[in-house]
Amino acid sequence: MVDTSPPQALKTEERSTFRVAMDSDFVYRFKNSPVAIVATAVVMLMVLCAVFAPLIAPHNPFDPSSLNLMNGFSAPMTPNAFTGDTFWLGTDDQGRDVFSTILYGMRISLFVGAAAVLFAMVLGVTLGLIAGYVGGWTETIIMRIADVQLTFPAILVAMLIFGVAKGITPVEYRDQMAIWVLIIAIGLSDWVQFARVVRGATLVEKNKEYVQAARLIGRGSGAIMLRHILPNVLSPVLVIATISLALAIIAEATLSFLGVGAPPTQPSLGTLIRIGQGFLFSGEWWILLFPAVTLLVLALSVNLLGDWLRDALNPRLR
Q1: Coiled-coil intervals in this record (predicted)?
Q2: Are residues 88 and 77 in contact, defined by beta-carbon separation less than 8 angstroms?
Q3: Closest by Cα among 282, 112, 128 to 184
Q4: Contact in structure between 82 and 73 (CB atoms under 8 Å)
Q5: Confidence (pTM)
Q6: What distance in Å separates the CA atoms of residue 203 and residue 131, rounded to the nearest whole number?
Q7: Do the beta carbons of residue 202 and residue 179 sit within 8 Å?
Q8: CB of 95 within 8 A of CB of 87?
Q9: DSSP structural state of residue 228
Q10: Contact at 8 Å (CB) between 89 and 57?
């Protein structure tokens, strides 16, 4: 019989690699930071709830056949006077379960936030690498555009881009393209900080010996930027991306609250807050409160995680 088990030396090497990773300074800081542990647990829980919303949600709030208008304005954990149904977080004016709408709304908010940050990161890192490595007029043009954009609030830039993009989109496709237009608008309003950080780090890295050695052996500019400089400037980029995720989620909620974000057919947390705000002073407080608290907890957890990551990756604090 042939022994197909891996050699003992390979098993030992795998265990030692895992042990080195677990004993690293990064993991040690994480294990000794209650704030980071709690924030990570909350973010992971909310992400899992959003991803598996169809399996977790008691109802599908966007299926008209499953709605009963007689359940409208049901208070949390209180049987409805007409149907006798009880909902954990109550219902809205259309009889939709607020808990289910929050789960589905988180999917839109997280997707838009993550996609917008990814788009901004790719665009900003690319332009920052080019500006820092090439220099000259290329750097001047890129950084002057970034400086001009920084003079305007990001939310106003996002609203302007969203309005222009929505205006050139055919009417019959506006609701279908609204989410993607929102992602592009937030991403284009947030690329500047990635570009500025990467450009500064590239100016430092391109004069080091390993870059000069790569030039001597005939490496092209693109290969040097991607294979040599980029891996050495990713640490601050990851920190900025984590913090920007919370800002992107808030920006999406703000745009949706103002009525220029997610469409009513695909409501996000911001849309739910806008809907609940209309019933706040009539006594149906739960329609606004629970989506607002969810948004607050999500943004705060991501922000705390980003702050810890910034400190953990800062060599001056080690």
Answers
A1: none
A2: yes
A3: 112
A4: no
A5: 0.86
A6: 9
A7: no
A8: no
A9: I
A10: no
Question: Token pair for residue 132?
Answer: 């820092």
Token look-up 């022994």 returns 3
Beta bridge partners of 91: 97
Type of residue numbered 105: G
For residue 316, the model assigns a pLDDT of 59
What CATH code is assigned to 33-62+75-317? 1.10.3720.10
pLDDT of residue 44: 95
Structure tokens at 7: 């050699």
State the greatest distance between any 2 C-alpha atoms of the chain, in Å, as a whole number: 81
The structure tokens 């974000």 sit at: 261
Residue 303's SS3 state is: helix
Q: What share of the chain is helix, strand, coil (3-state, %, to 5)?
A: 75, 0, 25
Averaged pLDDT in 10-residue chunks for the chain of 318 residues: 53 59 74 90 94 90 81 86 84 89 92 94 94 91 92 85 82 81 90 93 89 86 88 88 91 87 82 88 89 94 89 67
Specify the amino acid at residue 18.
Answer: F
Cα separation, 31 vs 69, in Å, equals 49
Cβ–Cβ < 8 Å for 235, 313: yes
* Domains in the chain: boundaries: 33-62+75-317
Number of residues written out for the chain: 318
Could you tell me the two tokens for 9?
């030396």
The alpha helices in the chain, defined as continuous H runs, are 8-22, 25-31, 34-51, 53-56, 98-134, 136-150, 154-168, 174-188, 191-205, 209-216, 221-223, 234-257, 269-277, 286-312
